[in-house]
Amino acid sequence: MKIDCKEAGRYMVVKVLEQRMGADRAANFKDEMCKLIDQGHTAFVLDLSEVNFIDSTGLGAILSILKRVGKSGDILVTGASNTVGSMFKLTRMDRVFQMYPTVDEALSARV
Amino acid sequence: MKAMILAAGKGTRVRPITWTLPKPMIPLIRKPVMELLIEHLHRHGVLDIAINTSHLAPLIENYFRDGDRFGVRIVYSFEGALVDGEVQGMALGSAGGMRKIQDFSGFFDETFVVLCGDALVDVDLGRVLQFHKEKKALATIVLRDVPREQVTKYGVVEVCKDGRVLRFQEKPSVEEAVSTVINTGIYLFEPRVFDFIPSGQEFDIGGQLFPALVAANEALYGVVEPFNWLDIGSIPDFWEATRMLLEKQLPGFELPGQEVRPGIRAGINLRVPWDRVNIQGPVYIGSGTDIGAGATLIGPSVVGSGCVLQEGAVVRECILGDYTRVSSAAVLERKIISGGKCIDPTGQYLDINESQIGWIVDDARKRMQLTAAEAELWEQVRDYVMA
To answer: Are B357 and A54 inside 8 Å of each other by CB?
Structure first.
């Protein structure tokens, strides 16, 4: 699972550099994120703008990260394409995560 | 007058629905669009109908059979070959398809009308026939006046005052359009038109036959008729057509079922706890559907037969095919569920199996067996959302 990490204020911006977030990638994504959490990060902007397919396993991985950071944590989701956005909406996960069109919009909304 | 309905297309612009259903069989609130067309022909006394088929031909042929049920007589012209049990299409084009039927037995021995099987029309065929006869036309194109900004989607036709066709423009820009009347794909022909259609090769009515008629200075006319024309050439078209019909914007179209509550029409044998659901019309609910307490169903929506909306499910402005199960966890908004796909009105879609969303929406006839990932996600979402 390729990701790109950049710090922006109190947020760690994590860009997923894969087109598919399916069962074969989900565990690996979780591992990468857990490393960041172990380093002390609890606030993330998750940039999904490169992703054009996500399944229930992929969504489950994102949700498990939220669980892991706990109540003190904060995860914003950005750049969900039509199909990825559809998956969040269908599963009601758009109510669990705050979603923004772009990373910049997410960050400026949280300043 | 005899008729030919063009029904051999693959319907590429209506995928994914047309992976499993030929375009003429796409239902407009329960009835295949071609059935509505055949009913219209019957009303106008057109009883002998030839239909060319190819893509998913058995679905059309097994539904309409010999036409007896609809008060008409139907013959099919299958375009293709069965190779190892698989249908291999043979592209003949619209005019080539007509020619194949004519070569077989000279079926078209009087004035005949040609229509596309994928548009709902209520054109007054009697009036068009009268025009065609008065002009002694070899071919008459039924035209429709559209707002200028819409010409870019259609074939524009320029006609002179007496109706003679001068020229054609395919999808012109608003600025370049020579008129605002468009070709609706409904034509009347005399049998002599076959002099201009070659045998055994692909030949198109709009692209080849009409230019040939113009070049030969033949009597090619166009008549502008005001009538309703619901084309379902694409997913957005299908979406809009269904909503228009639900909102009763097409005079003469009768919604199926009985009105069981204001704005709510339904089939028979439903299980709905009316005092514990939120249903707002216009909605059609198919027979044998089961709606759980606390479910929300907002129109314009169509729910097919044998569907299950579980407790708390939310369905807003959707077209659900037969046997769709919507789970308690689901929020379905502006979706078409058909053939294992969850489709947006734009045509973008998710495959239900591939995306592992069977726990949200699936075929109601399947046992609800969640994969480990689905069960886990369902549990987690429930913790967060339902809390």
So the answer is: no
